[in-house]
Amino acid sequence: MRRRTFLRTAGVGSVVALAGCAGDGDQNGTPSDTQQDGTSGDGPQNGTTTTGNRERTLTVATYSSFTGDDTAGNYLKSAFEDERDGVTVEFEVPENGLNQYILQKQQGSNVSADMYVGLNTAELVRAEDGLDAELFLDSRGELDRADAIKPDLEIDPEGRAVTYDTGYITLVYDEDEVDPPATFDELLEPAYEDALITQNAQQSDPGRAFLLWTIADQGEDEYLDYWQGLLDNGVRILSDWEPAYNAYLDGSAPMVVSYSTDQVYYHGPDVDMSRHQVGFIEDQGYANPEAMARFADTDTADLALEFMDFVLQPEQQAEIAVRNVQFPAVEDADPGEEFSEYAYEPPEPVTHTYDELQGKVDEWIEQWARQIAGP
Amino acid sequence: MTADRTVSRALQRAALPVGVAATIAVLLVVFYYPVGNVLASAVRDGGHFTSAPIRAVLTDPFYTGVAHHLFADPLGVPAGVVDWTGAGFPSVRLGLFGFTAYQALLSTVASVLLGLPGAYVLARYDFRGRRTITSLTLVPFVLPSILVAVGFRAMFSRRGVANDLLGAVGLGPVELLGTLQIVVLAHAFYNAPLVTRLVTTAWEGVDRRQVESARSLGASRIRAFSDVVLPALAPAILTGAVLTFVFTFMSFPIVLTLGGLDLATVEVWIYARVQSLALREAATLATLETVLSLAFIYVYLRYENRQVTTRRGGQSLPRERLVAGWRSLFDPRRLAIAGYVAIVAVVIVGPLVSLLVESVTDPSGSFTTAYYEFLLARQSSGAVGTVRPLPAVINSLVFGAGTLLLAIPMGVVVAVAATRGGRGSRIAEAILTAPLAVSGIVVGIGLLLTFVFGTTVAGHRLVVTGPVAIVFAHAAAAYPFVTRNVAPALGGLDPRLREVARSLGATRLRALLEVELPVIAPALLAGAAFAFAISIGEFDSTVLLAEGVDSYTMPVALERYIGTRSLGPNLGPATAMGTVLLAVTAVSFVVIDRLGGRWEP
């Protein structure tokens, strides 16, 4: 019974307890029989059977802000290792994300990680379109917790990528400067001249999500005309979320494309909340689910599957939500009062399915970029 | 005894050819092979040569604008020109390449205009801190673009300092963000100091006796300047202009973070193609970009070679005191300098100071030390995946020192080979300068596909990553700057200096080390500072070659801090790390100058 201490982020009051998963490393992980209601600080039920002291390492590839102090990644690592003897979780953080592994596969080298955490639908499409071989294993059918995932958030009809959290892309606006637009067409009106900053869809997640949202709303034949209208009305497209958001904070425009969890960061006694209002155009927000998948080349397929089931447990889901500032993917997770108070879910989430994006998404983005840059 | 002498002379004789061979070997491994591997896919298709991808780009009006007629329908061009003339010369479509060149040209003009007066002040006036300021000229050069964007937003956004100043005199507010103007200003921020540094070095190399002779023979000050000083400065000014043009032609992050996608450059497209794994298209664009840059460099080298200015390495021109008591207030030249200093304060010093201010200011605008505490917390944290600041500083300095050790000999060797001249040496030099002219993104992806993933050499799987690979990559990127600083100075030396040394029995190497290099020490120092700056600021290949978690540098650490979620969407930690980066580089530059200045073989 080891006592575990976690670095807690401020304001999350509940103490985490681990569900006693039967992580005994056998093929089809027996359904976890104990669902601790626990709010006790005790360690897990001794449901872990030592598997002859076998040292096993799970290499998880992810994006850089998922690891480091106080992150969801580090929390998952220590919690998962505490629950299982002889297991080590290691992170790989390649600069070019999933492309690193698609290229490795293309080159015929062995993929160097066991699984990837942080996939989105467009990346999954790119991996599929760019490779003859399968990059990922099917996982969904083998997971005990798969049915707990909200159906709207599933991104992969093939069951390779399994959603673990989601963000919603919305507008963040300054209520002292503008009223939020109710529809996309309103954004073309003089009232919103020079009022919007968004991100480059070629390289930025929220930028791509906003572009796809306009395609979902305007249709794939009209979206370029719509964007020409936005351009004529002075929309600005900066490289990434950070420059765009900070240009917004510096007063360059009264609205910016950002996340609906904006206020989770910006609330407190001396924060002016008028600049952190979340606006749902058409009462929608564009869902950008993040998923995990096992690489086909992994030699620890079972351990990776255990890890996926572990990530989908309610307690872990709550922790990930708070630390990653994203919404849980499962129905039965409670990320706590503070998160729920300041993170808004859109009345009507929209997103493109895998089938809708397949073979199209890169072309949409390229045409859009040519429209913007067309000198 | 004599046998020893003979051996050592033989070794010395072999030194330069060996140096050239070693330089080429290093370049082959860390540059030509990986880059060639990527660019080849632009013209090869399953083992056959193909011009289709290049043709597709050249005939696409999106890329080449009005020039696409030249490639699509060359015979129709004269008629097109006639029509265009008849229509009263309406504005033509530039295309992505045309627009990129256009903004690079504007940026070059702005950088030269902002940089030249600085060289005049530093070379011709004396004031407290002059040497330190000269050492610090390259500091802006090492700043990651994300921080330049922070400083520029603080200065030029709607609520920024510049608009406050304008407001005080009843003007404004001006919205500069998102315009071509701000991109040009930011490019000038990066490159004007480079022009200043190059020209100052050249100006200090002007022999005062030549100017005095001209004056004593009755030449006016202006005449003496235009006949004696200007020819000595011209190669340096043009070098600065060419480097600036090539850099800003390949500019990518700054264009998007301050300007926007409507100001996209070719490099933006290359990056997007690489992101969506359309490597053939990326290679095609990069090939055209490289060909253009190299052609440009080649034309310049031809020009530089024709400039023959012999200097004997005499004394520099005497310096005037910058502040001459109360009379300074009425001296038009000094007033002009004061005006220039004010402009520099806004465009160059302002963003740097803003960065320091940002690092101690919380989102609500009050003083905070939280970001430096964040750095300290990171330093003492044992958590997995934590990027710690101190190792980043040490790595940067170690890689920078390693780069100096490699890049200076490489750069000098190439400069010696270049100044010898001979047939085809311009082309050779242009090709040896290729690291300047190839997009960093392409170098990065080339390294990834060859050494980082492993390559097969003679049946052995070879993986090259880690500190040594990083230093090699930095040296390949940095040595052209040493060459560009040293070659003109070497070429301008009186050949009789070397001949005297040789006739007294010195080998070529000894003459170089003991006679020529000491005379051109300022140029060598400037080259060293450039090489160090390139190494410190390099990001693209470092981040790919940094193995695991132990060889991240200051810019890589900084980029990791931007993504930190524990402090929310906040650049504070990055600005604090950026301030550390600035302090470390500033001290390094001063040290390089002071130590190098004492170098007497």
UniProtKB/TrEMBL annotation, chain A:
One of its GO terms (molecular function) is thiamine binding. It comes from the Archaea. The keyword Magnesium does not apply. InterPro entries: SBP (IPR006059), ThiB-like (IPR005948). Gene3D superfamilies: Periplasmic binding protein-like II. Keywords: Signal. Residues 27-45 have a biased composition (Polar residues). One of its GO terms (biological process) is thiamine transport. Pfam families: SBP_bac_8 (PF13416). Residues 21-53 are annotated as: Disordered. This is ABC-type thiamine transport system, periplasmic component.
UniProtKB/TrEMBL annotation, chain B:
GO terms for cellular component: plasma membrane. Belongs to the binding-protein-dependent transport system permease family. SUPFAM superfamilies: MetI-like. It is a multi-pass membrane protein. The gene is thiP2. Pfam families: BPD_transp_1. This is ABC-type Fe3+ transport system, permease component. Keywords: Cell inner membrane, Cell membrane, Membrane, Transmembrane, Transmembrane helix, Transport. The chain crosses the membrane at residues 14-35, 101-123, 135-156, 168-190, 228-252, 282-301, 335-357, 397-418, 430-453, 459-482, 517-536, 574-592. Residues 97-300, 393-592 form the ABC transmembrane type-1 domain. One of its GO terms (biological process) is transmembrane transport. It comes from the Archaea. It is found in: Cell inner membrane; Cell membrane. PROSITE patterns: ABC_TM1 (PS50928).
